[in-house]
Each structure stands twice: as structure tokens, then as C-alpha cells.
Write a structure and sequence with these properties.
Blueprint: H1 3-19, H2 25-34, H3 52-66, H4 73-86, H5 95-105
Helix pairs in contact: 1-2, 2-5, 4-5
Length: about 110
């Protein structure tokens, strides 16, 4: 099993255990691949739900650039909803899981 496959299995477990979501493994794999090498870097692999600049990066680089959404208050509401679903107290919010949940939240699976 490759390192990426191990991480995808870990993300699927996180979705199930912390978010109560059964992962669409095909989409989760595509989202994980889309994250690129950042998934192998401990700092870049996670998202800080309390860091405004980090959330702005998620909004600009993922929601607007990758998913092609228009900047609006709905994007901030979506990010907040995903962070709440993942659990604000959960320290390790994996980037691939956050992106997966945002993709599902906005119904933009077609971007992958």
C-alpha cells in the first residue's frame, strides 16, 4: 500500500468517525490527489479552523480558483458549516477531508 493510499484510508476513517460521513472513495481519492504534495507535509496537510488567514486561503485558492465559485458570504458560511461538522475542538483537520466536505457542501463534484 502506497503512502497516498494509507493517507486516503486515514481520511476516510476521519470522515466516518468525526463527521459521520460515508466517504465517496473515488471523489476522496481525486480530492487527495488534487492537494498534491502538501498531504505529505505535517503543517500543510492540516487546516487551522481558527486561523482567519488560513480560512481565507482555503476560500481563495480552493473554493474560488479550484471549484470556480463566485466570492460571496455563502462561501464563508460553507466553510463555517464544514468546520462545525468536522468539530471545532478537533485539532487535526486534514486538508483533504476539509476540501472533500466543501466539495460535497457546494455540490461541485464535477470539478473533479
Amino acid at each position: 500500500m502506497s503512502k497516498r493510499d494509507e493517507l486516503i484510508a486515514k481520511y476516510a476513517a476521519d470522515l466516518k468517525d468525526k463527521c459521520g460521513v460515508k466517504a465517496d472513495m473515488d471523489l476522496l481519492t481525486k480530492v487527495t490527489i488534487g492537494c498534491g504534495p502538501s498531504i505529505y507535509n505535517a503543517d500543510a496537510a492540516t487546516v487551522s479552523g481558527s486561523d482567519a488567514s488560513e480560512l481565507a486561503t482555503v476560500k481563495n485558492n480552493f473554493l474560488i480558483k479550484k471549484l470556480g465559485l463566485k466570492d460571496s458570504p455563502e462561501l464563508d458560511k460553507g466553510i463555517t458549516a464544514v468546520m462545525d461538522k468536522y468539530g471545532q475542538s478537533n485539532r487535526n483537520k486534514y486538508r483533504a477531508v476539509v476540501y472533500y466536505l466543501l466539495t460535497k457542501h457546494f455540490g461541485k463534484e464535477s470539478a473533479y
